Amino acid sequence: MTSSSPTWDAIVIGGGHNGLVAAATLAKSGRKVLLLEAGSDLGGAARTEEFAPGFRVSVLAHVLNRLHPDVVRTLELERHGLTIERGDFAPSVALSKDGALVLHGAYGEVLTGAAPSEQSAWKELRAQLLRYAGILKPFLARRPPDLSGMSMAEMAGLGQTALALKKLGKEDMRDFLRVLLMNVADLLDEQLADDRLKGLLAFDATLGSHLGPRSPTSLLGLYYRLAGEAGGAAGAQVIPRGGMGAVAAAIRAAADKAGVSIRPASAVARIIVEKTRAVGVTLAGGEELRARAIVSAINPATTFLDLVGPSEVDTGFVRKVRNIRMKGDAAKLHLALDRPPQFTGVDAVDHKGRLVIAPSPDHVERAFNPSKYGEFSPEPVMEITLPSLTDASLAPSGACVLSAVVQYAPYALKQGWTAGKPQFLAAIMAQLETHAPGIGSTVRHAELLTPADIEARYRVPGGHWHHGELQADQMLMSRPVAGWAGYDTPIEGLFLAGAGSHPGGGVSGAPGLNAARRIIAMKV
Amino acid sequence: MIPQSAEAAPQGNSRAAAQSHFRTLRPGTPFQPRIDALALKNDWYDWAGYRAPHSLWDEELEYFAIRSQAALFDISPMTKYRIEGPDAEAYLDRVTLRDVTRLKPGRVHYTAWCDDEGFVLDDGTLFRLSPTRFRLCSQERHLPWLLDSAFRFDVTVEEETEAIAGLALQGPTSSAILRDAGFAGVERLKVFDLAAFDHDGASVVISRTGFTGDLGYELFVPAGKALGLWDRLMVAGAPRGIRAIGYTALNRARLEAGLIVANADFTTSEHAIRADRTRMPDEIGLGFMVDPEKGNFNGRRAILEARAGRKLRHVLVGLEIEGNIPAEHAIVYHKKSQEVGLVSAAMWSPMAKRNIAIASLARPYGDTIVDDLWVEIYAMRELQYQKLMKRAKVVPRPFIKLDRRTASPPADF
Amino acid sequence: MKAWDAIVIGGGHNGLVNACYLQRAGLDVLVVEKNEWVGGAATSRELTPGFLYSNCSYVCSLFRPEIMRDLELPRFGLQVISYEGGAVFTRDGDYLANYRDHHAHRREFARFSRRDAEAYDRYSRDVTRQCRFIQPLLMRTAPDPTSFRPRDLGELLYLGRKFAGLSAEEMALTLRFWTMSISDFLDEYFETDVIKANFALSGIIGTALGPMSPGTAYVLLHHYMGEVDGSVGAWGYARGGMGAVTRALAASFRASGGTIRTGAEVDHVLVRNGKARGVVLAGGEEIPGKLVVSNADVKRTFLKLVEEKELPDIFLRRVRNFKIRGSSGKVNIALDSLPEFPALPKDSPVYRGDMHFTDSMERMERAYDDWKAGRWSADPFLDMVIPTTLDPTMAPPGKHFMSCFVQYAPPKVNGRDWTDADRDGFAESVISQIAEYSPGFRDRIVHMEVRTPRELEAEVGLTEGNIFQGELTFDQLLFNRPVPGYAQYRSPVGGLYMCGSSTHPGGGVMGAPGRNAAVEILRDLAKSTSHMSPAHDVI
Questions:
Q1: Which end of chain B has the smaller Cβ count within 10 Å, N or C?
Q2: Is B198 within a domain?
Q3: How is chain C split into domains, by residue range?
Q4: Is residue A145 located within the same domain as residue A175?
């Protein structure tokens, strides 16, 4: 292998879902693609792993609700085993001492457990939220507009958005512009009365971010969720059979089919930059691999600060990269249970859904408060799934897997996670016990992944699953950093394709797809 | 209720000791007792927060001290950073425009540094005191930029403006004075050389550099030893006409030498409130510093893109103007009608016997179009403007070239 | 009965500005004010002999100089004095001062961090650039983005051009600036807690947000875009207290022939056939007017002074949804001598500036958490000034007036109304904080006026005690202020206009809403606005 001629058209760093999508899409365009994964397993944060003997679980993401339709179509994922039927849609259940409230179908097409007045208020609000999220939706599969000079395509894209806005009609457009950057709690207070429903929505809006429902701009989180879809229905969610690893496996199958060479257990130590151009990578073992394009589907800070090194980029750029806020607040809980738990007031069938403990927006806000000061929530909020009820193969017969995303668990816990983790676990268990009495005595094994654990185990700096806070000032043209939001970077030949880039995290594949499209468009 | 903070107390005392600075809004430099004694005119200005003299006794004569004897000028207010560590060379190579690997220990070069957009943050002199130790001198302050640039470099950056006093000794007899003051071997310094000498048990770094286009030296010494150094030079220099001078005289000399001053001839990027005031090196005559071959440095990408895309908007030129009325801050016109730029510094040059100026022009004027340029001078004479439209010719800088500046060994006057 | 050309409800500074401009355009204008004095929240009252308080607003910067000039306010006694500096006291017995002199400022910061000392230039450049972008928008009517009228399109184009005129870096910063928290923003420039706290306070004053809430970076701009005689961002005292502003306005108004009726509380606006025809006072007196301008906030105006049936549902819904939660209170204190702060050197200019005791953003944010929970802050944030150090007219010789602006104070305490005991508890939280830093402080107190949101609402008429007549979040700025579709000072009722801080560009003693409303009214009347200066150039 000579050092002057690149062996590959593209080397993709990172075998998470975005890396796989980027690699597969590039390979389908006729490029010779090598994908390097540091771990022994593909899938990144979208993996299914055994956490206790006989118990398997989706390691981070456990609900599929935003895999982008363009990704499904481009990679023909249905041919590779990923099918989602309407019947798979999982309900969302707001747990409460006052009885559960359930959003059925695609994000509450039908609402049960609430007063008739609340049902009609919800119907109206849901339609409005979906309408507004729909305005923003086309941005997901588009490169953010380039502020230093827009291409015709970008202008046309913005023109379409303007047109869509006008189509809303005058009053609806006005409301859209008013609420765009609002906090979710105020909007909910304007339109709803039931704390359980408001709590659920407030939780969904702030899940995965360092915001409380009263933080301005928190409504964007809800839009982000509702701009996603599953099985063609906006806002729908499924608990994937086989866990999220099955989704990654389908994408991997598409990558294999497209001819991507995949090398697991190949950690990249350096991105080789010669004359300010990225020309290859050096593996941890010292092996050098060369390519015309290097596509980093891992964290942007890791990419530039560790793999490229600050000297190859400018100080202002390093500043911006270091200023990306990416300290996670979400922990992941895995419980191996002797038997399925019984959540009070929840129908058997709804146990297969997403169970949310967030009794009111104020409760979520109170849970958020301590995280600002590096303390965990004494009464955490969480979304719980019982994936073994959907796919019995995930747990030994009769036993049950519980998977929960829990907030708020600040990455930089003041007291340190060594001391804090058992205390936080106890706080979580106390909440679970309230809603599923007796659950504690059925725990065979508990695994709690704090953001610090997530960082260490899944190479996610700060343990932040979006690889950077998904807040208004870190979105679109500002993601991952202002001036370089379009997947290309100050280093020629180096591209970003991970969740740190627009539109952000969640198992969507959109950053990977958009990056691949950009590379293809640039004819790299 | 005052929440107690565990880490609060220990630092308090040193901080508290510094509180009294508010009583002295314009402190002096370590040389102030000597300068105060010589400041017959009490004509002060604010140099980076210090009290510095415009002129001590006669600005004309102070100027001629530079050109015919030796002039002593206090440069202590200049911002100074000590940059030290195994990666210091690589670090400075990334921060500044010129190739620092080619700057040998014991040498100085004039350089500049830019932000990501290729806009000049400042220009200054870089002293290589040892393989791993540098001093960077500049007009403005840059600690956050320098520290942020040091991320992942094994290097320390410390601001040492107050700790280190500086003197410029400039003029034909300067070399002889230094020798007579006992700095043996100083005459062996070639232009842009530096060497450390002993002074009163401390080290004084003497470099053959300056801001006058003349034979001259700059001396850096720990603040505590400053007065002794001043006295040593004054005593040794008396027979050769050494005089202390103020900024007005120095400013004339620097203009004749064609040198530019940050935030006088161009606006530094971190101070430009109006985004269009920022300048790339090629726009202020510093394009020669840009070394595209040396690997990445701050602004490289933007500068090369601007060059390739012909996006350079300005050019800094030397002008020679008809007549003898200084054209300071005059507007420059093409064909007497179209505004194309501004004069930032101007004077009648006693050495060149020409009316000279430095101006910033909007390209292509001053670049490819250099004919038919005019300046409009508003000369205020007894409460009335005399408006003059004078022909201006683009000429190379420096406006004067003195062989004695570079002669080695220097002449022994 | 005589029909006035215009009746202005409320003699606050915006109402008076509006009335002045209308009167000078040749209209016959009546201002009706419920209190026995005019001034609204810009008032100076003598509540104890010899002491003048700035009862609500207490410092001056935002008031537009164009208005001062147009209305000849200096001739009617207005004089604004820049103050000298300020400080944040630290818990270790030191303080961080702000000095007017650039280099003293730097040296002061360097006591805490050399890096932060040198970071100030870039910070100041970036903030100034944002101010320059926004400042020209203050004196313009916000465009309606849903409209195709040439004026709105023209204004939208103006905004677009202004934005397009920025460099890509500036645009990016602008976009971030409008959505960031002041805490995150400052983290990008500074490393020292107290230095960040020193700047962050401008991001929270008057808002129901903490420094860690997105959107507070914009609030900082709102406090920076004022000026004192061309010195942008500077703050000063109005000589004679903030009442001097409205006293001068009232005098200017009367001098141009205007009429003011105090002690005249409006019960409702008279509406016939969808048009405002005058006002009815609390006593039942009917005053006819050809048009009515309300200086009251949008909620008070449309939920209390206008009958529901006169208003479209969608408008009412939006008015009800307008966010106007009060977040601050005020403690005004008459002192028999100048308090001493042992942390400060006796000759420190800080005494002649604004003083604060909150030395970290975390303490500010925790104070805000109390507000969210429906309590006044246990460890409140204070913006404390002693105007008598520069303006001896406000107290007897040697004695002093101290103004403490306090955050946070919720509109309701634990969901119920404020009681007198609550008020006293709130005051005690303030006094005890000051006393921690100023031994013997309590003994110097001659008299004290305590104003919680309850008092602000009852006396000044500010709904929920919100000093900006509505929160300054993005959903309530520009074309969203006060409500979408009615951001151009008009209302659904013909001839009924708004001119208070509920309208663009919002609160603070700025006068711009009153002026901008006058422009729109005169436009509707096809009258000249040649007596109104355009916004001063920003060059």
A1: N
A2: yes
A3: 6-42+63-79+241-323+471-524, 114-234, 328-408+410-451
A4: yes
Domain count, chain B: 3
Regions of chain C where pLDDT drops below 70: 228
**Spatial separation of the C-alpha atoms in residues B124 and B103, rounded to whole Å:** 14
Whether residue A217 and residue C365 make contact (CB cut-off 8 A), yes or no, is no
Q: What is the pLDDT of residue A210?
A: 98
* B374 and B366 Cβ atoms separated by less than 8 Å: no
The pLDDT, as a whole number, for residue B9 is 43
Q: Identify the closest residue of chain A to B87 by CA–CA distance.
A: A311
pLDDT digits (tens, 9 = 90+) for A228-273: 999 999 999 999 999 999 999 999 999 999 999 999 999 999 999 9
CB C233 within 8 A of CB C131: yes
- Return the closest-CA partner of residue B317 out of B299, B293, B343: B343
Chains that touch A (3 or more CB pairs under 8 A): B, C
Q: To probe the interface with A, which of B116, B120, B311 has the most A CB atoms within 10 Å?
A: B116
For residue A87, give both structure tokens. Answer: 């019947």
User: Would the pLDDT of B235 be above 90?
Assistant: yes
What pLDDT digit, counting tens, does each position of C260-288 carry?
Answer: 999 999 999 999 999 999 999 999 999 99
SS3 A463: helix
CB atoms under 10 Å from CB of C390, counted, come to 18
Residue B411 lies in a domain: no
Q: How far is A177 from chain B (nearest CA, A)?
A: 30
CB contact under 8 A, A312 and B298: no
Architecture, CATH, for domain C6-42+63-79+241-323+471-524: 3-Layer(bba) Sandwich (3.50)
Residue A25 within any structural domain of the chain: yes
| A315/C contact by beta carbon, under 8 A | no
Q: HSE (CB half, 13 Å, CA atoms) of B75? A: 25
A273 contacts on B by Cβ (under 8 Å): 296
Q: Does the model's ipTM exceed the 0.90 cut?
A: yes
A interface with B, Cβ–Cβ < 8 A, is 273, 275-276, 305, 309-319, 322, 483, 490
Q: State whether C214 and A211 contact (CB < 8 Å).
A: yes
Question: Is the model's pLDDT at B19 over the cut of 60?
Answer: yes
Q: A316 and B116: CB-CB below 8 Å?
A: yes
Mean pLDDT of B328-347: 98
CA A138 to CA A143: how far, in whole Å?
10
| Separation between Cα atoms, residue C539 and residue C537, nearest integer Å | 6
**pLDDT given at position B8:** 43
CA distance B9 to chain C (A): 5
Using alpha carbons, select from B324, B330, B381 the residue that is nearest to residue B350: B324
Of A275, A311, A314, the CB nearest to B90: A311
**Mutation target vs B (from A311, A318, A481, A491; most B CBs, 10 A cutoff):** A311
User: How are beta strands C85-89 and C80-82 bridged, if at all?
Assistant: unpaired
- Give me the residues of chain A with pLDDT under 70, please: 1-4
* Two structure tokens written together for B192: 């842009």
- Searching chain B, which residue's CA lies closest to the CA of residue C357? B2
Domain containing A127 equals 122-231
Q: Given this model, what pLDDT does residue C231 score?
A: 74
Residues B74 and B104 in one domain: no
> Stretch B297-323: mean pLDDT, rounded?
97
- Report CA-CA distances (Å) from C524 to A373, C125, C297, C495, C529: 53, 41, 22, 9, 11
Q: Shortest CA distance to A331 belongs to which of A379, A380, A372, A366?
A: A380
Instruction: Note whether B179 and B59 are same-domain residues.
Output: yes
Rounded to the nearest angstrom, the minimum Cα separation between B276 and chain C is 8
Burial of C375 (0-12, 13-18, 19+ CB in 10 A): middle
Instruction: Flag whether residue B55 sits within 8 Å of chain A, measured between CB atoms.
Output: no
B31-81 pLDDT, tens digit each = 999 999 999 999 999 999 999 999 999 999 999 999 999 999 999 999 999
